[in-house]
Amino acid sequence: MIKKRIGSQTIKFPNPPSIIGTSSIVGPKEGDGPLKDYFDIILEDDTWAQESFEKAEAKIQEEAIKLAISNANISMNDLQYLVSGDLLNQIISSSYTARQITLPYFGLYGACSTMTESLSIGSMIVEGGFADKVVCATSSHFSSAERQFRFPLEYGSQRSFASQWTVTGAGATILSATGEGPYITYITPGKIKDFGITDTNNMGGAMAPAAIDTISQHFKDTGYNPDDYDLIITGDLGLVGKRIVLDLMRKEGYDLSQNYTDCGIKIFDGVEQDTHAGGSGCACSAVVFNGYIYKEMLKGNLNRVLLISTGALHSPISTLQGESIPGIAHAVTIDNLKD
Known about the structure:
Elements (H helix, E strand, L loop, with lengths): L4 E2 L3 E3 L5 E9 L1 H4 L9 E2 L10 H19 L9 E6 L5 H10 L3 E4 L5 H14 L5 E8 L1 H8 L15 E2 L2 E8 L6 E6 L14 H20 L8 E4 L3 H14 L8 E3 H4 L12 E2 L1 H17 L5 E9 L3 H5 L6 E9 L4
Parallel strand pairs: 3-4, 5-6, 5-7, 8-13, 11-12, 11-14
Antiparallel strand pairs: 1-2, 2-10, 3-9, 7-9, 10-15, 14-15
Helix pairs in contact: 2-3, 6-7
């Protein structure tokens, strides 16, 4: 008998896992943005003295996990599982990180939705009694993602105004069966939504339908309304996707205008930093959550947050073959108090 699932998609945790530590590491551009004071480490060099951008990304994720463990005042031996993923083919950043971390490893590919996907799976593992503590992590890198999904960096291609800037960075979260919060109280895993968009420079438009579907279903399943949250924040829809969400959620009967924004908008100053529609990438919601949101919750400035990381599940091959872009969005409720 299903006891923890409510409605059609949402899980409510009777014993919600506690977040006992986080970390956020970002690149130089992110460190020049509006949230710079919230990040644990700001790199001066986005290669971090590595031989390639891919190796740099793996190092960033590895160090983020180690820093989260330190910030939680625990040791590696206290953890039972690593749940992580990234944007690159065969999730090489996460797998090479797991090679160094040597914890039992669940590798995920949710594209830019990976932060809330890892938090969702990690929470089910902990709340289900299968582990006392797990670490959830993800990473992305502007240069590694750009040359995999778009063009060689040397090409110097012009970016459309709907395009976004992949965040260089990594975030990690330690979930525990015990702790004083904040807590993961609900998760709403998303469904694939694909409205036929094929333009890889319009990620916001491709992912917005999935975000709308997941947010609407979360409200229906839980009985909550937008006003029940201090902050509702999507992962990386940017300016284009945010407008779509606001417009279509209003048609669904939900007014998000007072407390909704997007991590891709928060992390950069779009005008001063020339990021066009905003930030993107797995690290976008990861560093905003593990940096800005978590620290604001500890201060008591935010008490209930709905985080919806969004992902575009295409590949370079599918794009060249003319396939449309499937979108996904996973929602996680973070509460300062147990529900």
